[in-house]
TrEMBL record:
Record has Thylakoid as a keyword: no
PANTHER family (alphabetical): CILIA AND FLAGELLA ASSOCIATED PROTEIN 100, COILED-COIL DOMAIN-CONTAINING PROTEIN 42 LIKE-2-LIKE-RELATED
Cross-referenced InterPro entries: CFAP_domain-containing (IPR051147), DUF4200 (IPR025252)
Protein name: DUF4200 domain-containing protein
Source species of the chain: Eimeria brunetti
Chain intervals for the UniProt region annotation (Disordered): 1-59, 234-260
Organism taxonomic ancestry: Eukaryota, Sar, Alveolata, Apicomplexa, Conoidasida
Biased composition (Pro residues): 1-10
Signal peptide per UniProt: none
Biased composition (Basic and acidic residues): 245-254
Keyword line: Coiled coil
């Protein structure tokens, strides 16, 4: 209610229906004076009329004060109830703002987690791209080194072919100018050397064979002795044993010795083995040399082709991965911008909600109502007086009216401290 409206409407209506007490008392005094002029001859009646008039005027003034105190107390109760409602509304608004701040904080935490995950994904993508680039670089380096080795091998092969051709010409020339008798003598010397080597090898093989045969015979005899000793131990313990096991053991030993003797080779066998070995070794050596050269060349070519193919496949795969990673990074950056825009929007909405909060407006309206009651009680308006101060003054005025009423009735009015409830304490607000 604005301050210009003055006292409550019900108070003015009641005042209109019931005129003030001093008007009634003045009208009653005028009537009594007129009657006293008519009855001036009777002093006792005049005194009775005066006493009656004083009693009536005091009772009406008391009733009027009681009525004003009641109306003022009712207005104070109404305003304090409104204050409680406004405080509850302000508490609800504060709770809503707190919940909004909590939601905003939770959204900010989720957004930070999203940012961290996005950064981690971006770092992982960059790491994979670097790793792929490093692997491709290593493969390119390996291919380049293999090409260099292949070129060096081809150069050595060409140089060796030239040397072989040159040595072949020298050999043909030497063969052409060398006498046939000297060649025959060299062939005979070569055959003699080969024969000597063959005899030496055969003797060494025979010696090794004899040593191995003697060792095997010793092992068979040792095994036979151990088994016979076991039989003797069993007999000494009182175990009956027939002569059949001894014979069987001796027969087995003789059989193994005969098998060893049959496996022995003669000098002729070793000579034939040497001749076959030399022929085979020379042929195999020649074949192996030729095959090694061909296989090495083929393997180098195949490895080079495989490396080039793998390098091309790896380059294509890494290019596709890089394109995919770039697309993922761009998408993550776009999502990051969208989340930032949403965060800014939420903050602006929260700020606008806080600005649009009508708690301050309600408190201002309450202050206006309290000011109106304060003015209706007859207090002067002070610039520095606040709402709580005005409520204290109103309660003080109400207490003074109640004390005056109790004093007029001849008894002391006692009001409990919490008669009107906890809202009577102005410090609560």
């Amino acid at each position: 209610m604005p301050a210009s409206q003055g006292p409550p409407p019900h108070a003015s209506s009641n005042a209109a229906e019931h005129p003030p007490a001093h008007h009634e008392s003045s009208a009653f005094a005028t009537d009594s004076r007129s009657k006293s002029k008519q009855r001036s001859a009777d002093p006792s009646q005049l005194r009775k009329a005066l006493n009656l008039t004083e009693k009536r005027s005091g009772a009406r003034a008391l009733v009027e004060k009681t009525r004003e105190a009641f109306l003022l107390q009712m207005a104070i109760d109404t305003r304090k109830a409104e204050i409680l409602k406004l405080h509850d509304r302000a508490a609800e608004k504060s709770e809503a703002v707190r919940k909004a701040e909590t939601m905003l904080t939770r959204d900010a935490q989720k957004f930070d987690e999203f940012l961290r995950s996005s950064d981690a994904a971006a770092h992982e993508a960059i790491r994979k791209a670097d790793e792929a680039a490093r692997v491709s670089q290593e493969k390119a380096t390996a291919v380049r080194q293999l090409r260099q080795k292949l070129d060096a091998t081809k150069a050595r092969a060409a140089s060796n072919r030239e040397k072989v051709q040159e040595y072949s010409r020298y050999r043909a020339f030497l063969t052409h100018i060398t006498p046939q008798d000297w060649l025959k003598d060299q062939e005979e010397l070569s055959k003699e050397r080969v024969q000597q080597q063959k005899q030496q090898w055969v003797q060494s093989q025979l010696q090794q064979q004899q040593l191995q045969y003697a060792a095997d015979l010793e092992a068979i005899d040792e095994d036979l002795r151990e088994k016979l000793q076991d039989l003797e131990k069993k007999k000494s313990r009182g175990i009956k044993a027939s002569a059949a096991p001894r014979k069987e053991l001796e027969e087995k030993a003789e059989k193994r010795k005969r098998q060893l003797s049959r496996r022995l080779k003669t000098a002729t066998d070793f000579e034939n083995q040497f001749d076959c070995g030399c022929t085979v070794v020379s042929a195999v050596a020649q074949i192996l040399l030729e095959m090694d050269g061909a296989v090495a060349t083929c393997m180098n070519m195949q490895e080079l082709e495989a490396m080039e193919k793998r390098f091309a496949n790896t380059r294509a795969e890494m290019g596709a991965r890089l394109e995919g990673l770039e697309a993922v990074i761009a998408q993550l950056q776009q999502q990051l911008q969208q989340q930032r825009a949403k965060c800014i929007q939420h903050r602006e909405e929260l700020a606008s909600q806080e600005q649009e909060s009508d708690a301050s407006a309600a408190l201002q309206k309450l202050a206006v109502h309290v000011s109106a009651i304060h003015a209706a009680c007859g207090f002067e308006k002070e610039a520095s007086a606040d709402c709580l101060r005005m409520l204290e003054q109103i309660e003080a005025r109400l207490d003074s009216h109640l004390a005056a009423l109790a004093k007029h009735e001849g008894k002391k009015l006692t009001v409990p401290p919490n008669k009107w409830g906890p809202w009577m304490n102005p410090r609560r607000f």
